[in-house]
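User: As part of a screening pipeline, I want to sanity-check one entry by hand. Below is the sequence and the SMILES for zinc ion. Please return the complex as C-alpha cells so I can compare it with the automated output.
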Amino acid sequence: MRYISLGSGSRGNATLVHCGAHAILIDSGFSRKVLLQRLAAAEIDLSVIRAAFVTHEHSDHAKGITSFCEHLNIPFYASFGTARKMEWTAHPLWQCIGAGAAVQIGSLAVTPVVVPHDAHEPLQFVIENAQGLRLGILSDLGAVTPHIVGAYQGCHALQVEANHDPGMLETGPYPPVLRARVAGDYGHLSNAQCADFIARVRWPGLRFVTAGHISEKNNDRNLVRQILAPVLECHPDEVHLLEQDDLSGWFSLAD
Ligand SMILES: [Zn+2]
Ligand SMILES: [Zn+2]
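Assistant: Here is the complex for your manual check:
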C-alpha cells in the first residue's frame, strides 16, 4: 500500500491511496484539470482509480469530485448529509456511507469516522489493506474526541491536520466570526491539538506522519515543525509537511 498527497490546504485537498490493482481518491478540492495534472505528475495509471471518497461538502474537499468521477465513470462515496448539501442524492455515481460502516474497494477497507466539524455530516477515514496495514487520514475537525482516538489506534501512517497557531489566528487577518469558527470545537485543529492527537495514538508500528491543511495565513511552517518534532522524536527538519500546490511524494507501507 502506498499513498500520496496531491495537495493540502484551504485552497484544496486530495490524497490518493494505491494498493495493487486498486486506488482510491480521498477528496478533491481541485478542478478536474488540476487534479489530472497532479495525478499525471504522480505517475499513476488512471484506470486503477476505482472510487472516490468525500469527507464533507466544503469546497476545498468536494469541489472537483463529480466532474472527475463522471470523467472516469467511478462511484463517489459520501455521507447522506454531505450528499444532501451538495445536491448529489439523485446522482447515479453517488454511494451513501455512514460512520463506522467499512466499504471494501479491492483489498482496501475504508472505515468512515465521525468528527466534529461545521459541516452537515463530516467523516474522516481509516484505510486498511488485506495485510492489516492502516493509514489514518484526519483533517477538518475542531476537537479530538475519545471516539477518534479509538478509531485511529494502530495506524502505520497518519496524515493529520495542523491547521493553525492560536496566537497567529488571534492577531491574523480573519474577521472575529471566522476566527471563532476556526478555533472552535467544530473548526480546525491547532498545532498543539495535532501534537496531542499524535501523542495519544503513537505506537511502535507508526512509520509515517505527515501534517497537512496548514493555514497560509494563521500558521507558520517552522512553528509546525517545532511543535511536532518532540512528539515524533525527530529533528524539526524531518517533520513531513504537506504542500498546497505540490505533491508530497509517495509514502510506501509494506510488510
Ligand atoms: Zn478543509
Ligand atoms: Zn471543512
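Points to compare against the pipeline: The radius of gyration is 17 Å. The domain at 2-241 is CATH 3.60.15.10 (Metallo-beta-lactamase; Chain A).
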